[in-house]
Structure prediction request, 821 residues.
Amino acid sequence: MGKLKQNPIIKQLGFNRIILFLVMLFIYLIFCVLIPNFLGLSHVMSMLNYVCFLGFLALGVTFVIATGGIDFSIGPVMFCCALISGYTLNQHGVPMAAALVICILVGTLFGGFNGYMVAYWDVPPFIISMASMNIAKGLASVYTKTTTVSWPQSADPGGWFRNFLKVGNVPVGLIIFLIAAVVCSVILNNTKPGRYILGLGSNREAVRLSGVNTKKWEMIAYIICGTLAGIAAIFFAAAYSTVQPGYGDQYNNEAIAACVMGGTSMIGGLASIGGTVIGTLIIALIQEGILAMKLTKDVQLIITAIIVIAAVYIDVSARRRKN
Amino acid sequence: MGEVILEMKQIDKSFPGVHALDHVDFNVRRGEVHALMGENGAGKSTLMKVLTGIYKKDSGSIIYEGKETEFHNAKEAQDAGVIIVHQELNMVGDLTVAQNIFLGREPRKGLGIDDKKMIKDSRELFDHLKIEIDPMEKMSDLTVGKQQMCEIAKAISHDAKVIIFDEPSAALTEKEIEDLFIIIRDLKKRQLGIVYISHRMDEIKQITDRVTVMRDGTYIGTLMTKESTKDEIINMMVGRIIYEDPKQQSACPPDAPIVLKVENLNAGKMVKNVSFELRKGEILGFSGLMGAGRTETARALFGADPKQSGTIYINGEKVDIKSPQDAVKYGIGYLSEDRKRYGVVVGRSVAENTTMACLDNYLKGFLINKRAEKNVSDEYIKRLATKTPNSEELVMNLSGGNQQKVVIAKWLARDCDILIFDEPTRGIDVGAKNEIYKLMNQLVSEGKSIIMISSEMTEILRMSDRIVVMCEGEIKGEIDISEATSENIMDKATRNIS
Prediction:
């Protein structure tokens, strides 16, 4: 096993990532055995709807967790983005392109707010993101007067935005998500923001004493997270059409679960975009499988919670062994 | 002075690479105050930790109240009546005085705690010691001096027979020290054995009966305080033989330009009106005892901690340093005494640590030029002889000396002209120590300037061109290396405070 880990190809891909990928295949096989007709395109396509928006949330929160922080607001922020931009689209007749820009901007603003509070006001990330979560829910309700917002169907004017998700049976959304993941991976591993985000997650004081503006880079991690939540909202709207105020909490946990499962450490300083992608696929797979088994959403909540606990436990105990 | 209550015989203790205690003898009598003195790292604290069971001795014996004893932890020692009053207080700020004193052994009443009894007992305890403290007051509202009194009261309430004071006066005011001495004299009258660890010569003279001096983990001797002089004790502390040859004269020409000038720097409680100059190509040694304010001065200068006032000139130009970012911009690099916390990012690679302060030089557009980064990292690995499999290795897998080299590489890669080395060889083995000394000499010969903070006298005398001595947050003197001796440095570092 130890020798296998030293193999250069395996090292490059990451041993844990390979294991996780095998786990995913294993889960898929189990579902295929348990559920008749699970094998096939229709389930995969419906699963990909879920992968796209959840994937963007998970990519974003990876940056925040890499700093050693946490963001519990991304789910409701995603809803808030979709609601505010969708309402503006329907009620004020702005063009679709503008609505999409607004959608992303709302996410960026929430990220900026969270990041500013955490980095410059020293508010614990846990507290500020809990507060933001409620602000996002409240703001969306107030703005839409607590009405459900429906995004245009494919045939309607502006319905072209659904092409981001799929064109016919081509999963455009998945391709965009994978490209975004590659970009995120490059940002995290090959650029200055990524270098400092990982550095400050590992040892903030040492990075600060190297003459780095740690506050700025920490805030940027939250801005990236918020912006990606805004993009996630577009994919959510494209997949599910209607958005209702007051929801979105469960996606926090699922995104964080995907991220932690993928090998990003809750303590910070260690992150894997590849792991986050596989983690997202696993969460989406489980959700699809549970629905196909005619079990309720509640079962999925419990399973996600168990995954988070297991992933964090594995991370923590691996560290303890190292020390 | 009564009979011997506690005797430590031939105590020996080694840590990996360090012989911390070399067959040390020490005893305490009933009704005496026995001073334990020595430089930083002489082994005083280790000896006391062996006594109270925090460390396990390798050999030797401890005889307490006539019986050979070995405590396995601080609780056992405490139950037997041997108690340390630590330099850092171990009190819970949000609890009341009484709650702190009875922490973990609260008197019970049914299922709850008998608050009334606890307060009554505390009050009796304070009356007994003639201390005026309200047991209902919150601990964090008390002054440090009063908190220390509480710590002493707590010790006595444990039915102490031997109390060890570990530098009790470090944080106290003159008045508080007087109060402390009144209590100590009272305890002495009650036939307790007291060990008093302190660097302050005047206190030793005032309060103690005997003085035992340690140096480099060995027992040097015991004197009656009354019959000894300050010089005698200092000589015992520093020893006459300096085994590593000290520098004879400054290697820095007296007309070398001044690269850094600090005027009237004030920061926090530990930096008071500090002024000094640093010349190009000079190693300026900062000597003093622990807690003298040297690290605080360096951190304030570097912008790591806020400063209240003071002017800094670099190459004759007045500069405003508000944060480490500013300091690095002006070419100052700081190697912290606590390199794991403030120096290296242990969870990241050697290469990433090397370019941490100068990443901008390794950017190609948005991307980091990893090849250039690897090249510079490899270059410093070679130049500093850092022992690591490659530049991708995580810093946490390196030894202390090699981690220090990574920090040095970080500042050299940034091309800093002024380097602050804070305890550069702490926790580093002898071989690596010599390499770091060699490197420092090489750096100054290349025209860099170094401020070296060190608590090791031999290091100060071996490396410095000029020595600044600090005590209690103030600069007490400046000595050229040609005139420096460990005696005249120690004299300034322990100068009486009035």
Observations:
- The two ends of chain A are 21 Å apart (CA to CA).
- The mean pLDDT of chain A is 91.
- Strands of chain A lie at 149-150, 242-243.
